[in-house]
Design goal:
mainly alpha, globular
Length: 200
Amino acid sequence: MSIRAERKLQSQQCIMETVLALGYSGHNFSSISLRQLAREVGIVPSALYRYFQNKEALASALLDQVALVIKSDLGLMIDCFFQHPTSLSQLQKFFTHIEQQALYWHFFIAERWGGFSLLQEKIEQEIEDLTDNLAQRLKRQACLPVIYQQQEKTLATILLPLSFGWIMRWLQTRHTPQAIEKTQQLLQQFQSQMTILNRV
């Protein structure tokens, strides 16, 4: 790869990370203007078009990257929740990892209803793909409770929105007073829910 191409990729990445950071600070994608984005990145607005043809192209590229992170994290979740359903330390490890990916998760969950139609459509498609991928991962779990065998797709459609809820609650709780105490309570709640799912 040429130096010029590498610099272009770095600039594109910088722009996408800026959008994620703006989203995490409370701006939904539809409300972010290209002028605002350019100012945050430190370039003139017209320079953005060197990296993304329009806002739709930016949204599409950003969601592709976010979806890869989400898919990987959901794989970790399945390993954690079904191989170690009663281990608080494993749950803590998983959610600590999620904190490092907070911008991605917040963007994906918040933009599902964020008002930018292309993103909403693509996120719904990604959710279908993630559900199928989750079902395949569940099928490969040797320790999956017998009742769920042959019902992996149904379980995946339950687990996916449940995991979204857990993750958003965790991320919100981490920024509150008494975060340590509250996150311990959340871990115990998640542990109880997973224990029930494993025993049904």
